[in-house]
Amino acid sequence: MITSWKLFLQDFVRLWRTPQVWVILIGLMITPALYSWVNVSGFWDPYGNTEHLKVAVVNEDKGASSDLTGDIDVGGQMMEKLHNNDKLGWQFMDRGEAEHAVKSGDVFASIIVPEDFSSDFVSLFEGTYSQPTLEYQVNEKINAIAPKVTDSGSSTLETTISATFNENVAKSVATELRNSGGDLSDKINSTAGNTANSFSETADTVANSRNSLADVNATIEGARPTIAQARKSLGSVQTTIDDAQQALNQVTALTDQVQKEVTSFADDATAAYIQGTTALADGTANANANIGSVTGKLNGALNRVDAATDGAQGILGQADKAIDQLAGVAALPALPPEVSQQINQSVSELRDRNNQNRAVLGELDSLNSDTNATLDSLNKTSELLNSMASQARDDSHGLRDDVANGLPKLNSALSNVSATAGRLSASLNSQKALVGQTDGLLGGVDEQLTHAQEVVKRFSVDLDRVEEGLRSARTDVIALSNTATNNTVLKSVNGLDTDHVSSFLSSPAEMESHAVFPVTHYGSGMSSLFINLTLWIGAFMLLIIFRAEVDPQGRRDLTINKAYFARFLLLGFFAIAQALIVSIGNLVIGVEHVSATAYVLTSVFISLCYLSITYGLVSTFGHVGRGIAVVLAFIQIPGASGLYPIEMTPDFFRAVHPFLPFTYGIDAMRETVGGFYGTHYIRDIAALTGMAAIAYLMGTFLRRGLSNVTMLVNDELAKGGLVINEQVHLIGSRYRFTDLLYASADREGYQKSLDTKWMTARKNYSQLMKLTIAIGLALVLALVICSRFMQDQKAIFFGIACLVALIAVATICSLEYVKQSIAHDNRLADLSDEEIQQHLQHQRRNPNQYRLEDVQSDKHAEISSTPQSQGDTTDKPADGGEESGKGDKS
Hints:
It is found in: Membrane. By secondary structure, this protein is mainly alpha-helical.
């Protein structure tokens, strides 16, 4: 901070010791103020001089006459009033002169009263009304504001005409009323009694009607419960119908299913009949054949069994004899006992076997008997099968006939059932809809009855009031009759002042205006805009005259923050002087204010805020920042509601309105001119403070990274040889810290990396440049064409076009910056190891200090005086243009 103040004092002393410079500085402080003073004085009271605004008036009205108004000449009366009206410079002439004067610009507008103007007015009383019209012509080429003023004059003229006509009609009516006062007295006396009686009879009738309304109300009240019960019953009916419909739907579905089953049964029965008949015939035949075969075989078997049985009986008889003989042998004494015993044993065994065989023969005889019985049974079965097959055939024929005859009838009956169910369901649907409609109708009736009750109640109250009014009117008529008898009121009518009555009716109401925060003169109201423009222009002029950069010569400990604040102090001194001069001058001219101190101090504060914004732009972006300051100046005039309310401007300006410094600067000055309200003034000052702080930070921080861009623009401008550039003093080392480390560690790899970057940039640079320019121009042209077809969106298209142009310029600058950065980095590869180490040490120790090298200034001057050829943009830059390499790339 001490260093900044020392630097400020040194710079100020240098200026003080150069008297010739103060001539320019005094002019620099006064010249911006002249803008405000001249405009405030010039626009001090323009609407107070409208009598010099010439408007031609032509009267061709021939007048008219009617029974009510008598002779009337609206045009002539209007001319008389305009002769005494000095709001505009009325010029009275004929039609031809007026048309020529409007076209030539001798008058701004003309108003012609046609010949049938009065006739159109009185046509109102004749039943053939025709709208009276004036012919109004305005020359809008002469001036943008004059037509609006003359429009106001034409509106005033229209009001004058209406007031004149009303006054004539009112005067005629008042005169007629005054003249008919005596006749009116006789009429009142003759009709007072009849009227009073009529009022009395009407009042009695109204009373009877009011009593009848009470009965109507009671009837309505009794009908509403019945309607409620009916609606409840309809709900039950609705439920019953729903249940019935559901049951009918089930009947229909069941009928359809039965029909399908019957059809299936018929098909199955027919097929079964055919199959059963065939199977029965085949089965019977097969059974009979089998029975016959079995019977034959059984007969043969029985015969063979009988023969075998007979043979076996004979053999058994012979065996018995042989056994007896063998038993006789065993009884012989000659046989030894052992042999005799064995023979007896054999005889015993033979007898057992023979008995067993005889038992088997007995069983065979029994089987034979059973077989014979079976044969008889089979024969009977065959006969029974034949009989049953014949009976089955007869029964199946009958069943087939029954199915063929009965199923169509059953299907027909089921179809009738389904159709009947459908018709009944449709009928129920109709009944359901009818029930719903009936319920809605009853609801509407109930609602109408409710409204009717309310209407009846209100009507009863109204009738009560009517009755009261009629009886009061009867009393008034009687009183009026008495008054008419005394002739006091009619005397007043006979003495009516027709002029006062007509004057009142021509303008029955007047508007009282009360200004809130009054500002008497137009110039005082516009002074807020003019003083803000003055302060912005003044700050811009300071940055045209003074250098934004501080000369760091001899100050090796100077940082960017100290230098920036020191220069801001110097510029702020002159900005304060500008604000004091313009604000005090406005007060001397007569600009209204609620506090001279607040007016002056607010001007000083706004001036410092505008200086901070413009200084931040110029310090950060150089010539580009000055361009941005100019663009902001002309955008803020319509966008900050300085002339017209922001609500009257296009969407684009309404969108940017909250972000413009003028918005808050103008509002703050208006508070000091018209009066303070709430926290509006604090809000405006706070907004300006925030914008100024952001700009100040931008000037100190962004400048470190954008200084190389600024130098790039300066170098390109210097090639033309016509532009004087301000030397840009850089901060820290001229090279990026990472590049220094890379080059120090691997110089060969660093060089290869640069070669690769350069080949890529050289290959794409020209194409990208052409593409950016082509796309930018195409988009701007498209926006211009769109604005021609959408006139109400012109401001938005203008804003988009500005944005496209800024993006295109930024892209071009970025491409050029990349190319120049590669050239700058290429010079790093040519440094010796010792020089690289020096840069590294400086980067570590003093990253925020200016780099002081007198050689750079010399080389910059050399570059500014020797323009380079345009062909240098396509070849790889060598070691020329040292200035392009200055700056911190980080």
